Amino acid sequence: MTQMSLENVTMQFGPFRALTDMSFHIERGEILGVAGPNGAGKSTLMNVCTGGLRASGGQVIFNGQDITRFKRHHRCGLGIAQTFQIPTLLSSLTVGENLLAGQIFGREVRGEETGISMEDILFLTQLEDHLPIPAAQADLLTRKRIMLGAALATGPEIIFMDEPLGGLNAEEIVEFLQVIRHVREELGITIVMVEHKTRALAEIADRVLIINFGEFVMLDTPQVVLNDDHVVEIYLGKRHDA
Ligand SMILES: Nc1ncnc2c1ncn2[C@@H]1O[C@H](COP(=O)(O)OP(=O)(O)OP(=O)(O)O)[C@@H](O)[C@H]1O
Ligand SMILES: [Mg+2]
């Protein structure tokens, strides 16, 4: 069942068009991978979905409602969360306080309790032992868990993750992919993840969207997409780093 739809979404930065007529559906509960060369418009695409940017044209529909003009906090209140390539945390606060801040923000923008308990978040992110530690002292994987945990604490139905595996080593990638999988399996949350590491996408994604020069190229299963000659030419040939 469709949860979010983009209909002819365009994003214009002055004379430069970063997204052109982007149309596709995100299914409830899926893990959708998004890939494409550097500068293809992947982060821009996430931002027009989460409210970091307002699309210049077209519509973003979430659960049947047109949210194109809504601000980020309003979209968060509807159940749309985002994590960033570089963990954005409240560094002077502890790990536990970061999670609480997410929960308080979620309550504020929803106007009610969020549907996800702190117990579930701690179970999924395995942050129990880190709660009293200042976030600034945490290693990269832990910082990524905190950012995901804080996003979960807002009570989302869908999370957009921008290059969640960036900077992690092979072992940490396996570990974090497992966390992401559990978020979908245990909480039924839809995951949209931008990722350059195509092997990881092939492992975790139900479907993969490829974009290039701000345009839709292909959306299908990882097997079909990652073996497509055109995709290999525009993307894998240039940056086959996984
Ligand atoms: N605020 C902005 N103002 C002007 N141009 C922008 C802005 N944000 C992005 N762009 C341009 O839009 C294009 C797409 O950028 P975007 O960051 O979405 O790409 P990306 O696919 O996420 O790239 P990467 O793989 O490097 O993260 C780039 O050419 C970028 O320079
Ligand atoms: Mg990007």
From TrEMBL:
SMART domains found in the cross-reference section: AAA (SM00382)
Short name of one Pfam family: ABC_tran
Lineage, highest ranks first: Bacteria, Pseudomonadati, Pseudomonadota, Alphaproteobacteria, Rhodobacterales
MF terms (GO), sorted A to Z: ATP binding
InterPro entries (UniProt xref): AAA+_ATPase, ABC_AA/LPS_Transport, ABC_transporter-like_ATP-bd, P-loop_NTPase
Entry protein name: ATP-binding cassette domain-containing protein
Keywords of this entry: ATP-binding, Nucleotide-binding, Transport
SUPFAM superfamilies attached to this UniProt entry: P-loop containing nucleoside triphosphate hydrolases
All copies of domain ABC transporter, residue ranges: 4-238
